Amino acid sequence: MSERPVLLAVEGITKAYPGVVANADVSFSIGEGEVHALLGENGAGKSTLVKMIYGLVKPDQGRMVWKGADYAPAAPRAARATGVAMVFQHFSLFEALNVAENVALGMENPPPMKELAAKIRAVSEEYGLPLDPSRMVGDLSAGERQRVEIIRCLLQDPKLLIMDEPTSVLTPQEVEILFRTLRQLSAEGTAILYISHKLEEIRSLCDAATILRRGKVVGTADPKTSSARELAEAMVGATLTPPERHGREKGRVLLGVSDLSVASPIPFGTSLKEVSFTVSAGEVLGIAGVAGNGQDELLLALSGEIAAPSDRVRIDSAPMGDKGPGERRRAGLVAAPEDRLGHAAAPDMSLVENAFLTGAIRKGLTKNGFIDWAATRDYAERVIKAYDVRTPGSHVAARALSGGNLQKFVIGRELSQEPLVIVINQPTWGVDAAAAAAIRQAILDRAAEGAAVVVISQDLDELLEISDRFAVLNGGRLTPPRPVQGLTVDEIGLMMGGAHGMEVAHHV
Amino acid sequence: MDIGGINLVVLVASLMVAAVPILLAALGELVVEKAGVLNLGVEGMMIMGAICGFITAVGTGSPLLGFLGGALGGMVLSLVFAFLTQVLLANQVATGLALTLFGLGLSSLMGQNYNGIKPPLTGAVPFGPLRDIPVLGRIVFSHDWVVYFSVAMVVLLWWVLKATRLGLIIRAVGESHEAAHALGYKVNRIRLGAIAFGGAMAGMGGAYVSLVRVPQWVDGITAGAGWIALAIVVFASWKPWRALIGAYLFGGISVLQLNLQAAGSAIPVEYLSMSPYLITILVLVIMSSGRGRAALNAPAALGQNFHAAR
Amino acid sequence: MIRLEKRPNPSRFWLYATPVVAVALTMIAGGLMFAALGKNPFEVIRTIFWDPLFGEFAWYLRGQLLVKAGPLVLIAVGLSLGFRAGIWNIGAEGQYIMGAICGAGVGLAFYPTESRLIFPLMILAGAFGGWVWAMIPAILKTRFNTNEILVSLMLVYVAQTILAMASTGFLRNPEGAGFPGSRNFSSYPAAQNPELIAGSGLHWGGVAALAVVVLAYVLLQKHILGFQIKLAGQAPRAARFHGVNPATLVVLCMGISGALAGLAGMFEVTGPAGQISIDFNSGYGFTAIIVAFLGRLNPVGILLGGLLMALTYIGGEMASTNLGLPSSAIQAFQGMLLFFLLGVDVLTNFRIRSLIGRSTTGAR
């Protein structure tokens, strides 16, 4: 790879935000047609770095060189004009606009809509990513949405394509298709900067890797020759121990869901269709699925935020389908939604108030409707201590905590309520490896104490690690749960709906 | 063509005139809301337009300059809103209300020496013989230029929002400011532009009230027209041509109730004069029910402020 | 250029300082406005803010302060609960009018009977009138998802028409020689809302306002309902997760604010105003919105804000009679106050950074 001419060199880039240094003296270079991995945990500074390359953020110090000339994009427009394109992890599609309009918004001088639609069809066929330009993006699956972003980039003939965690929303089969597309692009001379924390992907796809930890470059590696373990330890900076599983006895059924169908309250959401499963004491049920297949709706239906006929959800045999969140908590169910700021916690309220948010009932924090603030503060401080939440104190606003610390607080708040049933969506999303391991361990400990646990996650490795049984949400339907032991990745992929009908021939 | 003492042709012709202020204001607000901003200060901007337009027209003797003055007055006030909500990130609902309260006070202050003065006349467009065509002549060819301007704006905005890049960008910003920002669009600047446009349109609508509809200066002259314009945007599901229908519907109701009053109808005057407001409520109910039809069309980022954190 | 930077925690200092800064800025901008009107700005500001409290006629005007502040505080506290929960009742003026009509109507129905039960009954009727008027937008919102801002506002215009009907029709004084307006309550002791301590300006409305301030303070600080109101406004999805039913909250907040506005109207019409007349309402329902924000939606703050706003009313009237300042100037002045208040509010949640000399400020 060393004989490739250098396309982009980043030299000594530093970027600081109040309280954190996102990047400190970062340098690396990427050659033409090279697939280069930026490897690092959540919060290692990968996203900030690529935002600077894409012109969204300006570096405080350091410089970038593009084909030997100074490169300092003032805005994404300038970056795009140079030949840099970016596929975002979040937040760059417009649900209420159609595919062609979304593509047009990402281009400098889009052709008239009719021409553009034809071009989208042509390019998407060429790269094996079929798309209908007239469809509303809100109606597309997560994988299809990503295709919109990729096509948007490809239409501009980029020299450098930045991909930020592209596979987190794909089924294993879809990942294969994406990789074929990326290899095809690389063969055509397009460099790809590939951001991920998934090691196997990087080993199979990338030519070179730069490893970031806490905003600094801690090493470079040749992913083809390094082992996943070497990469992991370079990334995390410590050796990791997998969670400990106690032998558990299955007890009585604590959560029973039968034939649950509810309409989604979320615009462009997915309705649940005839979902049925049971979870027994001491058991962990893992529910996988690509984002947007009904995970949020399932959590809402279990937590009590969406009502259903009363016999559709039973907690410890009591029909609870028509009861609200308060009554379900009283019956022993706790839940942790995926979205921490705004759903699981109120951003502008203190941790004490946020502890009261769900702890009021099971912790007996009210008397005749009056709040016992002293007891609530105690409870919040116990959670902070037990779950190692890094915060100056319980008085700070939830929004002041980092994502990982807030996640620890939210999970801790729920798990400290002696629950019978635990429902968690995305327990370790955006959390660093050490904290993730601690959270998984805490979940397993509760199961060992006799709670029934439902973990909804898009991280297959995580689910396979902690679940006893495994099911997949696909288009709002739940596959029959199967024991985890003996499941293969291919089988899981098929349960996840394969490649969502995008298995088309690649013209390479 | 007379029903209950009311001539239908005259009714249609006069409802087109009566609808102009709310139509202009509603079209302006429609663009503002499409860009994701909820400016509840329409009433305040309208009344500022009404007084600024009136003062300009009386001072210069030119109704045309009056309308420009009105547009400018509305725009200046809308820029206060834009500064507070886009730069200082103030709550849009509260700021919009402040705009209305302030506008009502300031307009009355500015207009204290203008009571009882007649503004220069805004004449009908000379269509010559076309005016004499039976029925059609009276309905289509008997109006002043602002009536045609308001209809032309419906067509223009429909085209801009649907078919142009500018329209696409406005819709995109109102749909998801994070996504628009990630693609490099200046969310707050685009919104600022939309707000200024909305202010100019509302100001012009207000000027039409004081220069043509009434025509003189009275405190509180807009009498809730701005709020009805806001309701029409909901009624229209954020579509310009439906705003036209909505405005003509309300124009029709207000003209009809005035005619009924004049014709000495059996219905007491008070019931007639509260009818436009009651019908507005009724229409809002119909549009909003039916499992969020209106909500589904509403720009997703409506009313939310945007601050580019990182 | 300046740039805003979100604070990790809201600033407690600015939380309390912003109203003061806003008042100061309004005095400056208002002074400029008064100067533009050809008045001596210092004289006007002194007339508005100083003379009513310490001037020649302060013995009388201080009492007026409570008369004006009472209804403002009563309405604003109610509104603030809804505003905190993200429920925008903008039609307090209409609820105020309807409360006055219902309260007065019940009283006048008993004329000339003298009984101690009549006034309490009128209080209930006043609260009921405002409550009913607020229930219309509340129920339309919960049942049909109709925008409560527009509906409650439309109902102000309807209430004004009903008020016109009442004063010229069904509540008109039969012995009033055909003039519009109801009987005067000062000549009907059983239904009158008198000044409780001579010269203080305190009537039952003021007592009610003080009681409501205390109750609202306890509710917001100590009670789970207050917690839920705050939560629903700050993070609606978290509120649902906590177990708040949004529909219940809408009905509750609209109902409380409507009932309090109705009470204010009833106390006003039977006390200071004296009778139902076509223009007895003086925009308190709208000014209370400013008061609610001026008090930062906090009951104690609203009490202070209400007194300050009452001061501008009284001082404004004095400036109008003594200095010839147009009364609409005061309305514009109050509007300005709200602008500045909303504007400087940014300091509570954001820091302002200069982008001039970016390389030094941006670094670390």
Most residues in contact, chain pair and counts: B-C, 46 and 47 residues
Global Rg of chain B: 19 Å
Shape of chain A: globular
Instruction: Report the total helices of chain B.
Output: 12
The N- and C-terminal alpha carbons of chain B lie at a distance of 66 Å
Tally the structural domains of chain A.
Answer: 2
Characterize the largest beta sheet of chain A: strand count, sense, and whether it forms a barrel: 7 strands, mixed
CATH class of the largest domain in chain A: Alpha Beta
Instruction: Assign the CATH superfamily of the largest domain in chain A.
Output: P-loop containing nucleotide triphosphate hydrolases
Architecture blueprint of SSEs:
The complex is a heterotrimer of chains A (508), B (310) and C (364).
Chain A: E1 6-17, E2 20-31, E3 35-39, H1 46-53, E4 61-66, E5 69-71, H2 76-82, E6 84-87, H3 99-105, H4 113-126, H5 142-154, E7 160-164, H6 172-187, E8 191-196, H7 199-205, E9 208-213, E10 216-221, H8 228-236, E11 253-262, E12 272-280, E13 284-288, H9 295-303, E14 313-315, E15 318-319, H10 325-331, E16 333-336, H11 351-362, E17 366-367, E18 370-371, H12 373-386, H13 403-415, E19 421-425, H14 433-448, E20 452-456, H15 460-466, E21 469-474, E22 477-478, E23 482-483, H16 489-495
Chain B: E1 2-3, E2 6-7, H1 8-34, H2 42-60, H3 63-87, H4 92-110, H5 136-140, H6 145-163, H7 165-175, H8 177-182, H9 187-213, H10 225-235, H11 240-262, H12 269-297
Antiparallel strand pairs in B: 1-2
Helix pairs in contact in B: 1-6, 1-9, 1-10, 1-11, 2-3, 2-4, 2-9, 2-10, 3-4, 3-9, 6-7, 6-11, 10-11, 10-12, 11-12
Chain C: E1 2-6, H1 12-36, H2 41-49, H3 51-54, H4 58-84, H5 92-109, H6 118-144, H7 148-170, H8 204-222, H9 224-234, H10 236-242, H11 246-270, H12 284-294, H13 299-323, H14 327-344, H15 346-349, E2 350-354, H16 358-361
Helix pairs in contact in C: 1-2, 1-14, 2-13, 4-8, 4-9, 4-11, 4-12, 4-13, 5-6, 5-7, 5-11, 5-12, 6-7, 6-11, 8-9, 8-13, 9-10, 12-13, 12-14, 13-14
